[in-house]
């Protein structure tokens, strides 16, 4: 690393406070960047030095080892939001740097009358993470509004721009998540360009509980602010809006993705559920655009014996980690958990579901230096 970057680097900085799970040991070095140029420069210098690299934004989707990270953590704090065009015909084209706080962008969209991301209100983390995971909730996914993603290609050593079709978006997945390089991702997101509808009303409501709360029907459109308020209320009930005083929010959100099964695999799951739970009880079934069947991870977890607030038995009080007391998809830090505690609990849930129903759950957060 050059002299300027070394001057800005912090040695031994704790990673835990930079994440929503609040676990993780020290970083060998921590470099904070607040311009896209500095982000590219920092990543390139780490790669040129053949050192381990961890790019960290909002820290909402990562569990880092108690041993920390034996390389450079690049903390992305780029935050520019630029409106490139806005008219009733083509909508609003908005370019956002990767380090911008995601919910701040949603707030601005609602205030400005830009529809398309209002159902993604309250999701913690940064803009740069949204295309990687194809973040989604309450019937919306960012893939529906992303026009371009500008990245640094660590292999080609160049800036590249991906169109929506190039991104390979599927459920909680993209080319950015699926392409690896030197223990991390090949592509570092620099900017995301969103194409949003100019409208006072939300996009059609795609989630039944949300529609019920709004006294509307699925497919209806409501004022943007009403849609945001209803989503935030739903998320707070599930402990999914960050709150320092609420340990249910000390998490990575949903720890497991909803399983996507072939039709045959789902039929096997359904038959197994009937044997265990009775002929009238079966797993939820949702359509998948590729002809598969999506089912509910929360349903499987609860019916495998892991209820709200579940903690590993016989641990001394207070327990370090438990499932959320509000819903079963979140693994939570009750205040003094280590990464080992988090992973031990998640592993027990995953293995219990597989033993009961024959379905192996897949973790949604990125695991750094730990494994289930």
Q: Structural class from helices and strands?
A: alpha+beta
Please give the number of β-strands: 21
What characterizes the major β-sheet?
6 strands, antiparallel
Question: What's the CATH architecture name of the largest domain?
Answer: 2-Layer Sandwich
Please, could you describe this protein's structure?
The protein is built from ten helices and 21 strands. The protein is α+β, with helices and mostly antiparallel strands and 372 residues long. The strands form seven sheets. Strands 6, 7, 8, 11, 12 and 15 form a six-stranded antiparallel sheet that branches. The two termini are 34 Å apart. β6 (81-87) and β7 form a beta hairpin. The longest helix is centred in the C-terminal third of the chain and has 19 residues, at 339-357. Residues 1-7 have low confidence and may be disordered. It folds into three domains: 3-76, Uridine Diphospho-n-acetylenolpyruvylglucosamine Reductase, domain 2, CATH 3.30.43.10; 81-237, Uridine Diphospho-n-acetylenolpyruvylglucosamine Reductase, domain 3 (2-Layer Sandwich); 247-368, Uridine Diphospho-n-acetylenolpyruvylglucosamine Reductase, domain 1, CATH 3.90.78.
């Amino acid at each position: 690393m050059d002299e300027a970057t070394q001057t800005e680097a912090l040695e031994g900085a704790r990673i835990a406070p930079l994440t929503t799970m609040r676990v993780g040991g020290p970083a060998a070095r921590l470099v904070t960047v607040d311009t896209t140029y500095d982000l590219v420069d920092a990543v390139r210098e780490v790669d040129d030095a053949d050192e381990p690299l961890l790019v960290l934004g909002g820290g909402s989707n990562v569990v880092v080892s108690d041993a920390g990270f034996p390389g450079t953590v690049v903390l992305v704090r780029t935050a520019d939001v630029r409106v490139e065009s806005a008219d009733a015909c083509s909508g609003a084209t908005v370019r956002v740097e990767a380090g911008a706080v995601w919910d701040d962008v949603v707030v601005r969209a609602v205030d400005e009358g830009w529809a398309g991301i209002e159902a993604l209100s309250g999701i913690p983390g940064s803009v740069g993470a949204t295309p990687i995971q194809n973040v989604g909730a309450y019937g919306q996914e960012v893939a529906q509004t992303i026009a371009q993603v500008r990245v640094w290609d660590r292999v080609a050593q160049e800036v590249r721009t991906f169109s929506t079709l190039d991104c390979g978006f599927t459920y909680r997945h993209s080319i950015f998540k699926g392409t690896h390089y030197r223990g991390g991702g090949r592509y570092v997101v620099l900017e995301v360009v969103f194409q949003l509808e100019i409208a006072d009303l939300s996009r059609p409501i795609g989630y039944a509980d949300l529609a019920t709360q709004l006294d509307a029907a699925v497919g209806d459109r409501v004022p943007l602010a009403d849609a945001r308020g209803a989503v935030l209320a739903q998320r707070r009930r599930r402990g999914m809006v960050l709150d320092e005083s609420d340990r249910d929010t000390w998490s990575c959100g949903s720890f497991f993705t909803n399983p996507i099964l072939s039709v045959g695999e789902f039929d096997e799951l359904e038959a197994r559920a009937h044997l265990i739970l009775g002929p009238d009880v079966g797993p939820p079934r949702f359509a998948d655009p590729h002809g598969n069947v999506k089912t509910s991870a929360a349903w499987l977890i609860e019916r495998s014996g892991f209820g709200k607030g579940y903690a590993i038995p016989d641990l001394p009080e207070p327990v370090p980690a438990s499932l959320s007391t509000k819903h079963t998809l979140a693994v939570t830090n009750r205040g003094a958990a280590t990464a080992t505690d988090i992973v031990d609990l998640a592993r027990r849930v995953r293995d219990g579901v597989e033993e009961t129903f024959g379905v192996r759950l897949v973790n949604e957060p990125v695991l750094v230096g730990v494994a289930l």
